[in-house]
Amino acid sequence: MERIVLGLILEFVGLHLLAQGQAVRRAARAFLATAVRAEGEVIALRVSRTGVAQRPRPAHVYLPVLRFRTADGRVVEARSPVGGNPAPAAKGDRVGVLYDPADPRDVRIDTVAGHGTTAGRVLMGLGAAVLAVAVGVVVSGVW
Predict the structure, then answer these.
(1) Cα–Cα distance measured from residue 85 to residue 66, given in angstroms and rounded to the nearest whole number
(2) 21, 86, 103, 141: which is deepest, by most CB within 10 A?
(3) pTM for this prediction
(4) CA–CA distance, 27 with 48 (Å, rounded to integer)
């Protein structure tokens, strides 16, 4: 009975990770479908805590603040929601920027990681792995 309950919990977690990964990939693809490219500069890095407890301090992600000129000539400064640890770029770096022309403050650095689709794939891979463990727990009784 315990392994069935554990299997159900793992299945729920795996399905949740798969759904989150798909949602991240869908949002990234929608952004990329309309995004416009510009040249920009990283003017700052903001620290965002992930909430994951690590010793001796919480984990964090560096989110780049970008300055760029839109196709219609406006200068925009905006923080990317996609970052990393280590930082995806250093302060002062010139980078390619992708932005939403309807909302130029919606920006990403123009890299594979910056597009956001990689994060979705990682979440989906983790979800599939957790589902495989769930099946193993229930079917083989391992645990």
Answers:
(1) 17
(2) 21
(3) 0.73
(4) 21
